[in-house]
Design a protein that fits this description.
globular; 5 helices; Rossmann fold; alpha/beta
Length: 184
């Protein structure tokens, strides 16, 4: 479940759209792995819930102020956040298609979804190479459906770090004013 990138630097995609997430927001970091995004949002005074099935990785995060760790196998067990809402949900380097309805229900009506994972074509560059873990062309858009206002979407090869083929989406809930008003 954990992300493939063990770097503690946040994803450039997450950093690019992090301004959509207010300081102090309640953020869910799905399949948090080493917690690079959990740590980054916690440093912005966000209330972060980091979920992963790897207890050893969660132990590394448990003492970080602002982070609540939840050990759960979100592929095999019931969704642990059924009655909760988050201002932002972050998912990187992880794909379990059956989670999308849960993610969308757990996102506040004006919340932010930042999602980035591997797509078909990535098998040319390494793992993951199993089609079950690679998005088809445009699939991330279809999984989100009309539930969100898509602020940005990209798909294709990236070359920073090791080359990979990815899809990335930044979306906001339909109750969010979009585009935001410019200051006068």
């Amino acid at each position: 479940m954990s992300g493939h990138d063990t770097s503690l630097s946040p994803s450039s995609w997450v950093l690019r759209f992090a301004a959509l997430v207010a300081d102090g927001a309640r953020v869910l970091d799905v399949a948090c792995g080493h917690g690079r995004h959990s740590r980054w949002f916690a440093a912005r005074a966000c209330e972060v819930v980091a979920v992963d099935r790897d207890a050893a990785l969660l132990d590394q995060l448990s003492s970080v102020a602002g982070i609540t760790c939840v050990k759960a196998d979100i592929e095999a067990d019931p969704w642990p956040f059924e009655d909760e809402k988050f201002d932002a949900i972050v998912v990187t380097n992880y794909l379990h298609r059956a989670l999308f309805p849960h993610l969308l229900r757990s996102l506040a009506d004006d919340g932010v979804l930042l999602y980035e994972t591997f797509a078909r074509g990535n098998e040319s560059y390494g793992k993951p190479s199993n089609p079950d873990f690679l998005l088809a062309e445009g699939e991330l858009l279809s999984l989100v459906g009309g539930a969100l206002i898509v602020v940005a979407f990209e798909q294709g090869r990236i070359d920073h770090g090791r080359p990979a083929v990815v899809q990335r989406l930044a979306g906001v809930g339909r109750r969010r004013r979009w585009p935001p008003e410019l200051p006068t």
